[in-house]
Amino acid sequence: GFEIETISGEKGVLAHRDIHGAGRVGPYGVDVGALERIAVPALRPKDSEMIVIVDEIGTMEWMSESFREAVRLVLEGPSTVAASIAEKGHRDFARMKNRQDVRVIQMTRDNRNRLAGEVINLIDTRIVLQSRGNDKQGGAVG
Q1: Read out DSSP for 17-42?
Q2: What is the pLDDT of residues 111-142, one digit of tens each?
Q3: According to DSSP H, which parts of the chain are helical?
Q4: Which pLDDT score is estimated for 35?
């Protein structure tokens, strides 16, 4: 199955073969309620300097209207966002990746081990630019 976990340690089951209901991706039933109880509140920044990390925005998560709205609000807000977005799926995924304020980094087998450092450097640079008042982009690093 698939778990949901916040940085603060709250956990739940997002999807499992034993979950039965309307929301299914392949053999997995999706617990949209767990996603909305755990992930959605974590996507609401407490202040504009909060960095929001979303792993991942995919078909299972996109079944929740509340999750979609929380993602939309955080991308439109002042917080820095680092997110993994499914390569294929809902048309909204391409829209997010095509935003002016989004930097897309394609993960491959060759670069996956160094991506964490690259993303951290991008976030650090953005924080420095914001502190100097030079940040012309808003929204997301994705």
Answers
A1: TT--SS-EETTEEE-HHHHHHHHHHH
A2: 888 888 888 888 888 776 666 665 544 444 33
A3: 32-42, 65-76, 91-97, 115-132
A4: 96
In whole angstroms, how large is the CA radius of gyration of the chain? 16
Tell me the C-alpha distance between 5 and 42, whole Å: 10
- Answer yes or no: are the C-beta atoms of 12 and 34 closer than 8 Å: yes
Cα 60–70–124 angle (5° rounding)? 100
The Cα–Cα gap between 84 and 116 comes to 12
pTM for this entry: 0.82
Q: How far apart are CA 19 and CA 66, in angstroms?
A: 20
Span 60-65, average pLDDT: 97
